[in-house]
Amino acid sequence: MFPHFLFCRFYIPPHFLFCQFYISPHFLYVHFTSFVHFFKSIPGSVEFLPKSDYTLFCNYVRLHLGICRLWKGLIIDMKQIDFENGTITGNIINAAVPMLVAQVLSLLYNIVDRIYIARIPDIGSTALGAVGLCFPVIIIITAFSNLFGGGGAPLFAIQRGMGHDRKAGRIMNTSYTMLCGCAVLLMGLGLLFARPLLVFFGASEAALVYACPYMMIYLLGTFPSMAATGLNPFINAQGYATTGMLSVTIGAVANLILDPIFIFAFDLGIKGAAIATVISQCLSAGFVLYFLMTKAEIRIRLLHRKELPTSLQYAKNIVSLGTSGFVMQLTNSLVSICCNNVLSHTGGDLYVSVMTIISSVRQMVETPILAITEGSSPIISYNYGARRPDRVIRAAVTMGIMALVYSVLMWGLILTEPRFLIHIFSSDQELWKDAVPAMKLYFAAFIFMLLQYTGQTIFKSLNKKKQAIFFSLLRKVIIVVPLTYLLPYTFHLGTNGVFLAEPVSNVIGGTLCFVVMLATVLPELRQMKEQG
To answer: What is the 3-state secondary structure (H, E, C) of 277-315?
Structure first.
């Protein structure tokens, strides 16, 4: 028998990527012929091929038809989560598990790049630090995605809970229109000022050789990047959590396959990593738009010109609520700039690479927390809109317990086995000597981040704009940024001062956010319950 797994491993049918469910016989035969030439070019593959071309062709047809049926079923018959009547724990698990898979896979857009880049012969560590210098721009793009997606999706879910589907649709369309305009603007400004920005972020002349090409190519994919990230919350807010997961899976798997091809096979180095990422983002964004435009319960489109004046209030509400997530992402970019700037002066390019690894580890370990909190958010918002305070409280408590169990386990792993996590991104022994103590210091109070995430999620889900924005600013801008300069220079802690600023902010900012959330939200929910 022909080994079907070899097809799946070395070849991705275009029907899988582009949702083409009908296969014409002529196209299939032509495509089959090109595939056989490709497969025979793989060393040692000929022995696997059956003698009869007819047998091989039949197996090929069966494989394609099986994939098409599976994919069509996933797209059209996707199960929708019942936010109104399902059990709270079941709803959160059904929403969080696909989102966890999606969040883990979304890391591949950046982390896989870093893993491969760090292993480029001779220049790996330098190139990795150069990519770290591009983080602020990547974070800014993500921040604007969250401004429209994170601001629009909770309002969208609240209106659905109230039974106002037309208003919910207008909110989603307004978010989409703003996202498109913003993507064009960010790409233009980024391409125009790429080099000066990198110098401002702390890039040396040696780092600019690698950072500038990566950033320029990455910016060309600004719209697909923002569409994939910013519109996915509207899929999850309609209860299609598995579809949201698939949208990320497509891009992540493509990136995993394309990265080594472009970096090593085509010998494009760091440029190849950026090209692979942009192609992958295009595939992911194409799927998101396809589903929201043709399959979703409430479908997306750009606003018509005559709708623009009447959508201004929706836009203000979206931006107002989304500002908290936007500020969190934007302040992450600000902190990254400040840390790289101070580390480049106090420790050199080596410590910029150390911070790049620590940032990568942080993204990786925070992913399940984000999946749990973001998976719970539409459930909290929907039941808040439906005026069901008991279900809101149960959802919040369940979210907190699930996130706490994970956080404790991961905190222990980071402090006891930091080398294991560092080794994922770099095998440079010289880098390890500085990265291990820096990581232990940076994650010393990681458990307190849970309080921040819980408080912020509930504020955002219940449309508490002022509180959400304030606590986004408090931890990063008011605490971390000043400490990043005070501890290394004023208190003469050097590079350790940069890494120590994070745990101090976690304790202060996280505790205050959680306490204020309890004092603000619980009385309102009790009052809602009394009013019936």
So the answer is: HHHHHHHHHHHHHHHHHHCCCCCCCCCCHHHCHHHHHHH
Closest CA to 215 of 160, 172, 271: 271
Q: How far is the CA of 415 from the CAs of 411, 449, 496, in angstroms?
A: 6, 15, 16
Q: Could you tell me the CA-to-CA distances from 413 to 38, 408, 409, 420, 439 in Å, in that order? A: 44, 9, 6, 9, 12
> Which residues neighbour 18 within 8 Å (Cβ) at sequence distance 6 or greater?
286
Q: How far apart are CA 379 and CA 358, in angstroms?
A: 32
What does the alpha-carbon distance between residue 215 and residue 199 come to, in Å, rounded to a whole number?
Answer: 13
- Per-position b or e across 94-128, b if 16+ CB within 10 A of its CB: bbbbbbbbbbbbbbbbbbbbbbbbbbbeebbbbbb
Distance of alpha carbon 173 from alpha carbon 304, whole angstroms: 10
pLDDT, tens only, 214-259: 999 999 999 999 999 999 999 988 989 889 888 888 888 888 889 8
Asked if 483 contacts 420 with a C-beta cutoff of 8 angstroms, the reply is no
Backbone phi and psi for residue 419, each to the nearest 5 degrees, phi listed first: -65, -35
Radius of gyration of the chain (CA): 24
pLDDT in tens, 340-387: 889 988 988 888 889 988 988 888 888 889 889 988 998 999 999 888
Q: Using CA atoms, how far apart are residues 238 and 232, in angstroms rounded to an integer?
A: 10
Q: What is the 3-state secondary structure (H, E, C) of 452-470?
A: HHHHHHHHHHCCCHHHHHH
Q: Which two tokens stand for residue 150?
A: 């994170």
Provide the CB-side half-sphere exposure for 490 (13 A, CA). 6
The reported pLDDT for the residue numbered 191 is 95
CB 382 within 8 A of CB 157: yes
Question: What is the Cα–Cα distance from 280 to 15, expressed in whole angstroms?
Answer: 16
Which residues fall within 8 angstroms of residue 220, CB to CB, at 6 or more apart?
A: 187, 191, 278
**Do 300 and 176 touch, CB atoms closer than 8 A?**
yes
pTM: 0.68
d(CA 403, CA 400): 5
Q: Taking phi first (over 0 means left), then psi (-120 to 50 degrees means alpha), and beta for anything else, what does residue 300 get?
A: beta
Provide the 10 A C-beta neighbour count for residue 138.
20
Neighbours of 81 (CB within 10 A): 23
**HSE of 194 in the Cβ direction (CA atoms, 13 Å)?**
20
Closest CA to 298 of 356, 234, 346: 234
State the CB neighbour count (10 A cutoff) for residue 470: 17
3-state secondary structure 68-124: HHHHHHHHHCCCCCCCCCCCHHHHHHHHHHHHHHHHHHHCHHHHHHHHHHCCCCCCH
